[in-house]
TrEMBL record:
It comes from the Eukaryota. It comes from Paramarasmius palmivorus. Coiled coil: none annotated. It is a multi-pass membrane protein. It holds the Pfam family CorA. This is Uncharacterized protein. It is found in: Cell membrane. GO terms for molecular function: cobalt ion binding; cobalt ion transmembrane transporter activity; magnesium ion binding; magnesium ion transmembrane transporter activity.
């Protein structure tokens, strides 16, 4: 509708401009105006609800909104949420904007609804007119309309339409989450994890929309029709109780939908934790393999170090005896027996000194020993290996601290 048309409509029914501004900008709102005691008033209810459309209807979605549904783009909870399960569909936000004029004259009761430009919208004027007509033909609503002249019950029919759309959309979302759980059980693709986070962000936004709808229903309960005061007290009381009853039914359904949203959010969180736990377990397995490889390499390096310690004195003596010096032999050549006589004691002495220095944590009867006591480690090691024990408490000997007792894997 153009600006002049809105002005004409507002002037004809005395509608506040805020009704059109909140409807055009999709601002959830609820307010009462033009209150006339015992004569009537105007109430406005603007809510945003969730509905589903098929994948073949994606042409009605703007390119910007379509791009926003991809997980590569900036997360936009206002954009349609694409669900790939069961052939693919979209969960889109829709607008329900109702302005109700309640008057003491039943012929002056008027409902004005505002709709956005989506041609497939299930909140369109033609579609809602058909829904209201079908509701009026049902036995339940016929009895309500006949027993009470309050036009607020017609407004409740509009809200029930939004509740049904919510229920259908959340059922589709629930099936999609189940399919994603089954896929994630077989795979730990991080792209799917990002998709779960994307859906969870939309669920948080949907919870706020349900809260707005709950506030709208409570607003209807707390805003009775002033024109009902001129009716009989019995009819007025009966109509009031019936209105509260129907509003409580709406509140119960909204609470059920909210619980369903919370349950789906918890399932998403559980699946996301499962993915992270699986990734952590795999990382831990890789780290364990790396640690085992490092231990094997360390043991090999220790063996090389021990071999070097054993052969280093002999190599040194061989280098010395390889010199053509008269101080070693008169003819410049050393005797093999002399080499053995020098190399073996030097090798044993080297092992003994290194073992003494390395055994810093050697303990006897729970107390650390001094350097001079550690010089006797070969005797204590032989004693421990043979199983000799003294009459006193057994000595605490940390054999793993001795280089000679270390073994590779």
């Amino acid at each position: 509708m153009s600006g002049p048309v809105l002005q004409m409509l507002g002037a004809r029914f005395n509608i506040e401009p805020f009704f059109f501004s909140s409807s055009l900008n999709w601002i959830p709102s609820r307010f009462q105006e033009e209150v006339r005691r015992d004569k009537g008033d105007h109430i406005t209810v603007v809510v945003t609800f969730l509905r589903s459309i098929g994948d073949e209807l994606a042409s009605v979605i703007s390119p910007a909104s379509s791009d926003a549904t991809k997980i590569d783009e900036i997360l936009n909870t206002q954009a349609p949420l694409y669900l790939s399960s069961r052939g693919g569909c979209y969960l889109v936000l829709d607008l329900l904007s109702i302005h109700l004029i309640r008057d003491e004259n039943e012929n002056n009761n008027t409902i004005i609804s505002f709709h956005h430009t989506d041609p497939d919208s299930k909140s369109g004027a033609a579609y809602l007119h058909e829904r209201i007509r079908f509701a009026g033909q049902s036995v339940y609503w016929q009895h309500i309309f006949q027993s009470s002249p309050d036009p607020t019950f017609v407004l409740l029919v509009f809200l029930w339409h939004a509740i049904y759309s919510w229920d259908e959309a959340l059922e589709i979302l629930y099936n999609h989450i189940i399919s994603m759980e089954m896929r994630i059980m077989k795979s730990t693709d991080m792209e799917m994890t990002r998709g779960l986070h994307f859906i969870r962000a939309h669920l948080l936004h949907y919870s706020s929309l349900l809260e707005d709808m709950r506030n709208s229903v409570q607003f209807i309960i707390s805003t009775p029709n002033p024109s009902m005061n001129c009716l009989d007290e019995g009819l007025q009381t009966d109509s009031r109780k019936r209105l509260e009853k129907e509003c409580n039914h709406l509140l119960i359904e909204i609470q059920r939908l909210d619980k369903q949203l919370q349950m789906q959010g918890q399932r998403l969180e559980n699946v996301m934790n499962l993915v992270f736990s699986t990734v952590n377990i795999k990382d831990s397995s890789r780290m364990q393999e790396l640690s085992e490889a490092a231990v094997r390499d360390s043991a090999a390096m220790k063996q090389i170090a021990y071999l070097t310690m054993v052969f280093l004195p002999a190599s040194y003596i061989a280098s010395v005896f390889g010199m053509n010096l008269k101080q070693i032999s008169d003819d410049g050549r050393a005797d093999f027996g002399l080499y053995i006589a020098v190399a073996l004691p030097l090798t044993f002495t080297t092992i003994w000194i290194i073992g003494t220095v390395q055994s810093k944590n050697f303990r006897v009867e729970g107390d650390k020993t001094s350097f001079w006591m550690r010089l006797g480690w070969p005797l204590l090691l032989i004693k421990a290996k043979l199983g000799f024990k003294s009459n006193q408490e057994p000595d605490t000997i940390l054999l793993e601290e001795w280089p000679a007792s270390r073994r590779g894997p």
